[in-house]
Design goal:
17% strand; three-stranded mixed β-sheet; Zincin-like; 191 residues; single chain; alpha/beta; 5 helices; 39% helix
Length: 191
């Protein structure tokens, strides 16, 4: 056990044992009735469970190009009436200042590998954002109208903006202009 562990005993807790991360500490909640031997065994088990869950959560998604394409087509059908049909959708590692990009001319979409550790609804937002460029290439009112069909669009924009701010990634110039919603280039929405 490499993590700092704090055991909290409770008289009210009868049978359940729980554990969670609180900052740098793993807190294990146990009934007061456990013996020291039982406590040690449960603490080892619960710390291992928390650490396994954290490792799983930190693993990047391994969606291949085929899965990304299928996801993009399903999102297009669900939110854009099926009219945005990309030729390819793939992960790229060279996008340091964008979440995604789209080339309408050849109908290709590229997604930053940084997204792989983010919630699926955020990845879906970036895919929708890029799909909308296949319908409306510019970040104009019509474009944002298409993007707004995705119910979690505003929430995802906020998530990406917060992530960027926490990582101290400068937001794109278009984010600093009143009325603009460009998300592609820095740390906010998509691209």
């Amino acid at each position: 056990m490499g993590a700092r562990v704090e055991v909290r005993r409770s008289r009210r807790r009868r049978r359940t044992i729980d554990a969670y991360r609180e900052g740098d500490t793993i807190v294990v909640l146990v009934p007061d009735s456990l013996s020291p031997t039982e406590e040690r065994a449960w603490v080892r088990r619960m710390v291992a469970r928390v650490e396994r869950a954290e490792l799983r959560a930190a693993e990047p998604r391994k969606w291949g190009d085929d899965e990304l394409m299928a996801r993009a087509l399903a999102l297009s059908d669900a939110y854009l009436g099926g009219i945005a049909k990309p030729e390819s959708v793939r992960w790229v590692g060279n996008q340091r200042s964008r979440w995604g990009s789209c080339t309408p001319r050849d109908r290709t979409i590229r997604l930053s590998e940084r997204l792989q550790r983010m919630p699926e609804w955020v990845i879906d937002y970036v895919i929708i954002h890029e799909l909308a460029h296949l319908i409306e290439p510019q970040h104009d009112e019509r474009f944002w109208g298409w993007v707004s069909h995705y119910p979690a669009a505003e929430k995802a924009k906020g998530y990406l903006a917060g992530w960027s701010d926490a990582a101290r990634i400068e937001r794109p110039p278009s984010e600093r202009v009143v009325g603009s919603h460009d998300a592609a280039e820095g740390g906010a929405p998509a691209g």
